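Give me the fold.
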Amino acid sequence: MRFRHPDGSTVHLAYCTNVHPAETLDGVLAQLRDHCEPVRRRLGRDRLGIGLWLAKDAARALVSDPSALRGLRTELDRRGLEVVTLNGFPYEGFGAEEVKYRVYKPDWADPERLEHTTALARVLAGLLPDDVTRGTISTLPLAWRTAYDDRRAEAARTALATLGERLDALQELTGRDIRVGLEPEPGCVVETTGDALAPLAAIGHPRIGICVDTCHLATSFEDPHTALDALTAAGVPVVKSQLSAALHAEHPHLPEVREALAAFDEPRFLHQTRVGTAAGLRGTDDLGEALTGDALPDAAPWRAHFHVPLHAEPAAPLTSTLPVLKSVLTRLVGGPRPLTHHLEVETYTWQALPPELRPRARNQLADGIAAELTLARDLLTDLGLKELP
């Protein structure tokens, strides 16, 4: 979906396909048929943006076979789909029964991460629509915080500097400007937008910036205005933003609130949980840990890294951090010039929701994704952007 900003530039809205498990190119092609095109049809649009997640094997198949890449581009066009952004965070196995800490491997100290992201950049350069010259990729925020020493930090910095050089060369070769954004996430080396400033300054490359995930920002209790002001002052580009909402518990000391939170403690994904205290932020790596005994103080609200559907507020006594998303979006695209032109709805947890909330059939999932995109579209038009055909 495309929107015209009042300054005349185009803002792209997509939904991320990491909600659909696929490790191979055949699986990606099936996604387009079974999920992406049906969502487009529900929205009544001739064109729908998707943020492709390409696992290791799919990316390698595309970068090693030009005919396969042309075939994917043809299939996108045939189904009324377009790609300007990729989710490069998960490497493989994102649809496994247990993902948890595995999603952070390989990290930026491992050579595989550089090679994978380089492959994604080359693929994206070949998938961009003819009238679009800039593509974006989100990636993990350096590494999970444990076992990250000075040696690995230097390896990660060197890898990202090399990536910057490769992106420069790719633009010279193809005319396509591909940019990569570190995506701050609780528990990682770069947990907040503030944590990203020093590493990005050390890398010092204009094609490497930040991806603002509104669920992650809210989970860490970051103030959107303070965070975006700091990025602007430091000259850090917001490469893209993922529109997502976290789980919010206003009164975690109440038994009924604990019971409601426990329904979201599931075995597939990590749900980092945070609380703000006078001494600073405290947290656990997973929601189950927070619910055990007195692992976290419960006199103040808790937030959990659980991407809840944007359009469907959790049942009381829980809520979502949708107001944070709205505040971030207002700053990103509601001003005289957009701070970013690539927005991506990223709710990958549909099948991890409590059983009674999960879509039971493919058509129900398509309905839910279409409803999320409708909400995002309405927020954009309320900010003065005009939806394009």
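Residues 150-174 form the longest helix (25 residues).
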